[in-house]
Amino acid sequence: MLNRKVHIVGAGLAGCEAALFLASKGVKVDIYESKRIERNMAQSSDNFAELVCSNSFRGLTNAVGELKKELIEAKSPLFTVALDVKVPAGNALAVDRERFSEVITNKILNNPNIRVIEEEITDFDRFGDDFVIVATGPLTTPKLIEKIQELIGVKNFYFFDAIAPIVDAESLNYDKVFRASRWGRGETEEGDYLNCPMNKEEFENFITLLRDAEKVSFHEFEKDGYFEGCLPIEVMLERSPDMLRYGPMKPVGLKNPKEPDVRYYAVVQLRVENLEGTHYNLVGFQTKLTYPEQKRVFSSIPGLESADFARYGSIHRNSFINAPLSMNENLSLKNRENIFISGQLSGVEGYVESIAMGFLTALSIYRELTNSKLTVPNRFTALGSLYSHLINSNPENFQPSNINFSLFQPLGLSKIGKKERDLKRSQYAFENFCEWLKGENL
Fold first, then answer.
1. What fold does the segment set 6-156+321-436 form as a domain?
2. 427: how many CB neighbours lie within 10 A of its CB?
3. What pTM does this model have?
4. 3-state secondary structure of 145
5. CATH for 163-316?
């Protein structure tokens, strides 16, 4: 059965994870990617597994941290690379995004079991009964969306994701910015983040500029709303200035070595983009401001007065299917059981979650190829919880989600503090995952 070919549409995170996993098992894979022919509005590189929004795979000691631990334990191809090209990011895993994509691309191109075809796929009939993984991500082309809609019988839903700006490290004012990790939780002694501190007057000036700044006009398809976990800063401000001060601009847990006794009113954090430390991104500063307005407004932030922007922020549409309505338990489509939807298109949100679905989809197909049944870890685990969100949610109000502890099977720990509760959840999750992994013989 291993001689039955698998076709993967899309060489993003989920597609590359699935391709490398299956190829490592001796499965022949064709992967189709059209970005070198025509890029969409969020792409900037010809390399595969491009990290568009951020270079961070997020936290290490929360639910997404547990999901990363599980994937690393399972020898996820992409997280093996991520660990090799990581950059300092405090209590998070961040990577040199260009090197990450370069390494993944080279692994794909040089794998004898993988053939790369530069072509846009607009139908699935050409593949016959071969297995197909559709992992075209949040900006799936309209033609392909139409084909998917025909298969699942319902309209796709839409939400939004946004990209934070990147600045040149040499253009920062180091008389004002200081290096520190929140609560001192960093990989480097001096701190993993650069921090731009603000007093109350500076913060109020910033929000005045932000409130009055020109935004990019909405397209008709953009009027349904944003994904709550990735709101543009101007949308946060519209809700409340405190949403900024207690969100991406919260000053707590940060001490300036130059002014250790000073308590700031707000802080903008900058996270390193690459191993050389030549560029930093503005953490949590997704935006729909016009480019000239981004330069004007963000230059009011102390330390960014003369900042050179290597990339401005932007916003784009994400697409996803109604997974619980459309998917079988093995992640194939109910109406075409040889076709699997993976990555963000399946209804998960985030880099780590997309990789997780690439891994799980590939495992499902591998089980089909070896005449065995897919088993998934239980809902005490992060991977099992994410799977359950897609398969077992109420289809009438299904929305995409990051991994979070609310998706996990409860442990009855409500009487203890959140920090201890989350630690126990993670420990129990990892024990359960390792037990599942032993029986999988991967």
1. FAD/NAD(P)-binding domain (3.50.50)
2. 11
3. 0.80
4. helix
5. 2.40.30.260
